[in-house]
Write a structure and sequence with these properties.
alpha+beta; five-stranded antiparallel sheet; two-stranded parallel ribbon; 3 helices; 7 strands; 21% helix; elongated
Length: 140
């Protein structure tokens, strides 16, 4: 969901917020009469910020300046992602493979399914990846 925030008055500039424990700089963009034709003023009327990042929305709505310097003016429902969902193999088509160690299971996935892992890989991560491919490892 996308939310649009509008400043009270003509605030044009940056604001630093803590989003997920890390500082993030956000900018309110000026809105002129060209973007709001109902106002017959040639000057900057206000500034707006539009975002669909939930952590940023939370930080904006819990900032001390919320409803003082800026406010929420519009909420836009966006359509859900149309990306295909990850298919899990049917229970009757699960292939069981006997392995002696997580390293052997990792190598099996790499050789037979071109699955690559980065960094340290736990047995749990290997099992989750295998389940998505319809494989069950015995021995780990």
């Amino acid at each position: 969901m996308r939310k649009i925030y509008e400043s009270r008055g003509c605030i044009i500039g940056n604001m630093t917020l803590l989003v997920g424990g890390k500082p993030m700089i956000v900018s309110f963009q000026p809105v002129t009469s060209y973007t709001r034709p109902q106002d017959n003023v040639g000057d900057t009327l206000c500034s707006r910020l539009s975002t669909n990042i939930e952590a940023l929305q939370y930080a904006l709505e819990h900032h001390p300046s919320y409803n003082r310097s800026y406010r929420l003016v519009q909420v836009i429902e966006e359509p859900q992602d149309r990306a295909p969902k990850k298919e899990v193999a049917a229970k009757d088509s699960i292939k069981t493979v006997a392995v002696a160690s997580p390293a052997e299971a990792r190598d099996y996935l790499k050789e037979n399914y071109n699955v690559t892992f980065r960094g340290f890989v736990s047995a749990v991560q290997i099992k989750e990846k295998a389940e998505g491919l319809g494989i069950k490892f015995e021995g780990i």
